[in-house]
Amino acid sequence: xxxxxxxxxxxxxxxxxxxxxxxxxxxxxxxxxxxxxxxxxxxxxxxxxxxxxxxxxxxxxxxxxxxxxxxxxxxxxxxxxxxxxxxxxxxxxxxxxxxxxxxxxxxxxxxxxxxxxxxxxxxxxxxxxxxxxxxxxxxxxxxxxxxxxxxxxxxxxxxxxxxxxxxxxxxxxxxxxxxxxxxxxxxxxxxxxxxxxxxxxxxxxxxxxxxxxxxxxxxxxxxxxxxxxxxxxxxxxxxxxxxxxxxxxxxxxxxxxxxxxxxxxxxxxxxxxxxxxxxxxxxxxxxxxxxxxxxxxxxxxxxxxxxxxxxxxxxxxxxxxxxxxxxxxxxxxxxxxxxxxxxxxxxxxxxxxxxxxxxxxxxxxxxxxxxxxxxxxxxxxxxxxxxxxxxxxxxxxxxxxxxxxxxxxxxxxxxxxxxxxxxxxxxxxxxxxxxxxxxxxxxxxxxxxxxxxxxxxxxxxxxxxxxxx
Length: 469
Fold this sequence. Notes:
Helix content: over 70%
Radius of gyration: 24 Å
Largest sheet: none
Strand content: under 5%
CATH architecture of the domain at 1-112: Alpha Horseshoe
CATH superfamily of the domain at 1-112: Tetratricopeptide repeat domain
Distance between the termini: 62 Å
Order of helices and strands: HHHHHHHHHHHHHHHHHHHHHHH
Number of helices: 23
CATH topology of the domain at 1-112: Serine Threonine Protein Phosphatase 5, Tetratricopeptide repeat
Shape: globular
Number of strands: 0
């Protein structure tokens, strides 16, 4: 346990002792056990409600409580696992990894390598590695978790559905859409056989499939599934629940891509109203929903309305999560795109560079999300005819995407097309043709790659290419 973690445990738990007068080393075992369970339940509830600072405090208290139990007590591993998930959601990836690593070791030592808790920890840790762009590390963890569950449980167990979802998410991120769809549908079939038609777990499967279809441009199918998820969550969890708000936001994004801007805006404004009423103006989910509303305004070129929404989202994200948090970086990136569309390239460049620095610190220099910002910076320079500045960004974006996502991924096609335009403008026509032809081959069997040409950035680049002919 690192010094920072130990200090946090001591300070947090000391505060809790001062509040309720309970001392672990003086209570009976039954009292200690009850209080441990209370801390765990509070931590889980706070995390599900996205009150991450409160969740962290309760999980730290649970960790301290568990350290008072006998050596080898698996409740210590459980508290570390809960704390790790919270750190993951906070963007504290190194702290999360440390906790997952220790929890997994404790569970394997106490229960063996093929225990259900080992599988759960592997899945959670794999999700962390996926978010860090460490796909090669995540895949074997998820496959091992699924193999453990297949051995422990009968076919169709609900835990298997979760692991199928997680592996599907990984394949979707890698652009392996058919494999992802197969896994999502297996997960959905498992849940439909086991659960009632209005169970919130079914909404998870609908949401996963909907997000996949959104990614490959099947917006009507995405809308249908997001609507199903929303109906279930609204009825089972209530309209103000974070999961319901997420479904509302996802459905609004599908409406936006279908050009149904009025429906999209109405739904997002309803979500914002619910957040304001349920938690007040300081709700931690508010920045992301405001960002979606700004995206909707931006898609309609209502730039004067979009800008203050992005600015408000950014201010709140900096307040809730800090100026260096990854989610803050994503909002900065969105604001950069707004200025790009308005041809305010100096502001766009500044914001993209700021977003890039945050992503590189959070995710490392070779994450696919880093490549997205590199590519956008390259486009920004290209449209200013700063070709020498643009090329290193396109080259690095292409290298990252090929290495992390594979040479047939649609994002690779996007960078190839952009790079090819640069090469044409600098009279390297043979190289440009080679890249354009390669992008076209990727697009033949990949609908998401075909859709890359519809992005605002690429439209601007295509217009620029026509002007140069």
